[in-house]
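To whoever is on call:

I kicked off a structure prediction for a single chain this morning and the downstream step that reads the tokens threw a length-mismatch warning. I double-checked the sequence; it's 105 residues and nothing unusual in it as far as I can see. Pasting both halves so you can look.
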Amino acid sequence: MILKKAGEIQAAQLAARQNAMEPLAAILADRIRLISELAATEVPYGKAHVAAEAAGWSASELAALGAEEPTHRPRGRRARPNTKAAAPLEPDPSADIPSQTPVNA
């Protein structure tokens, strides 16, 4: 009798847990889909934002219109490495060590 009642209680608890999970699982699936769709806009949004700035819009003007700074800015052209060697430093004559003369000589 006690085991049967315990089994019924556990079954009811399990059913309640499963019923509560159904709407959460549906909403979670929607959130995952929306996050994925939002992530797919990051690169084109970044390019469009940079193009707007290149056309003369300031970052603050774009922000005032709701176009916030993109999280990932497109990569620009890489700078060429500096092929010129640094010129050797000339010794500074004013930095010469003064001659050492004995004090009690």
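Update from on-call: the warning came from a stale cache, not from the record. Cleared it. Sanity check on the structure: The first helix runs from residue 2 to 40.
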